[in-house]
Design goal:
Organism: Azotobacter vinelandii (strain DJ / ATCC BAA-1303)
Protein name: Lipoprotein
Strand order of the largest sheet: 4-1-7-8-9
Structural class: mainly beta
Number of strands: 10
Radius of gyration: 18 Å
Length: 139
């Protein structure tokens, strides 16, 4: 009986992995920061719009990654008695040495009104930082 209850749960978990494509060993794989899954979206590679916004998979060499980061500026950064302010920013990050088969991690955050992005290798060494390329309010 326990097996019958456990089986659908295991199948459901396995199905989650099917949603992401397999990592091509000839490509570099860039995972997005898991702490902000709904706030960070992959947007562009070399200024070409992506169809899938959950990750980057790029050929070896130099690339410019563009990502959208939504965050809320706390009222303490705006002024007394103010409502929080939502920002939607495009951040661009350039890195010249993407290697085939390597996994990278892209993390974002913000300080006041300014977003930041950092690219790390699998040893948690910071490789590059992103630059804000335009922000707007809300959606």
């Amino acid at each position: 009986m326990r097996v019958l209850i456990l089986l659908p749960c295991l199948l459901t978990l396995g199905g989650c992995n099917l949603l992401l494509p397999r990592h091509d060993p000839g490509q570099a794989w860039v995972e997005l920061n898991p702490r902000v899954p709904h706030s960070l979206r992959a947007a562009e590679v070399d200024r070409k719009t992506l169809d899938d916004h959950r990750f980057f998979q790029v050929s070896p060499g130099a690339h410019e990654l563009g990502m959208r980061y939504r965050f809320e500026v706390a009222s303490s950064n705006i002024g007394p008695n103010r409502a929080p302010h939502e920002r939607n920013c495009l951040i661009r990050l350039n890195y010249k040495e993407f290697a085939p088969g390597q996994r990278y991690s892209l993390e974002v955050g913000d300080v006041g009104f300014r977003p930041w992005a950092r690219l790390y290798d699998d040893q948690r060494r910071m490789l590059a930082t992103g630059q804000e390329s335009g922000c707007n309010s809300g959606a």
